Structures are given as C-alpha cells and as structure tokens.
Amino acid sequence: MVSKIIAMAKSLLGEPLPQSEEEPLTRLSQAAFDEWNGRLLPEITPENCADALVLACAWTALSGLVAAREAAEPFLAFTAGELSVSYGKNGREDTASRLLKQAERLMAPYTRDNGFFFRGVRG
C-alpha cells in the first residue's frame, strides 16, 4: 500500500519530485500509513477504506514534505525607511496545515477521535 501512497503523493505534487526528495517521501509515506493505520477503528481494516487511506496518507506525507521544504528555505527580510522586502515563507506552512486538515476530514469516518478532552477536571 505504501507504493500506492507514494505514487498518489507524486501525482498530487504537481511538479517532478527531485531525486533528493525520493527517500524522504518514501519515509514520510510509510510514517503516514503507520499513523493512520494505528488510528483506524477496530472494525476497520486498511483494505476497507483503501481509497480514502491512500489519499489521506499521500496528503499527510506531502504535508511533511512541504514543511521540510519550508524549513530548508531561508527567510530573509529587511526594512529601509518605508520600503520593506522579504523573501521566503511563501505560504507552505499554510499548505501543510491544510493538507493535514483535509486528511483528518477524509479519515474521520474510519478513525477514532483523537481530539482534546479534559479528564479529572471539576467543572
């Protein structure tokens, strides 16, 4: 299934994947599969939700790849009088966050709710 996830992620990328990112994408895809597989409801198998799982894992892996690209890109900024110039931070962080949110929504029917809850707090 991981090979399907990698293929899906590459097709969604919209640009050729640089050779230097092949291994990171493979590892991110495996990690995404492991994460989503671990969150599946007891009565759900990866095969039961394969289409959704592959897409959610691809979005999750791409989120990690986009975040890594963001971290590797330098951020330069300076201001001179009324002129302000900045380079970097081109919205990749927002893109990574949106990809994860899409994956969460897609997998919601198949996974346990890992939301926040209070335990032992008196109201």
Description of the structure:
- The protein is globular.
- The N and C termini lie far apart (46 Å).
- The longest helix is centred in the middle third of the chain and has 23 residues.
- The protein is built from four helices and two strands.
- It has one domain.
- Strand 1 and strand 2 form a beta hairpin.
Provide tags for this entry:
two-stranded antiparallel sheet; mainly alpha; 123 residues
Short description:
With 123 residues, this protein is mainly alpha-helical. It has helices at residues 2-13, 22-39, 50-72, 92-107, and strands at residues 76-80, 83-87.
Main sheet properties: 2 strands, antiparallel
Please tell me the overall pLDDT. 85
Total beta-strand segments: 2
Helix content: 55-70%
Helix-strand category: mainly alpha
**Order of secondary-structure elements:** HHHEEH
Number of domains: 1
User: Could you name the ranges where pLDDT drops below 50 across 5 or more consecutive residues?
Assistant: none
User: CA-to-CA gap between the ends?
Assistant: 46 Å
Instruction: Name the beta content range.
Output: 5-15%
Report the C-alpha radius of gyration, rounded. 18 Å
User: Which shape, going by the Cα principal axes?
Assistant: globular
Main sheet strand line-up: 1-2
> What's the helix count?
4
Q: How is the secondary structure organized here?
A:
Blueprint lengths: L1 H12 L8 H18 L10 H23 L3 E5 L2 E5 L4 H16 L16
Antiparallel strand pairs: 1-2
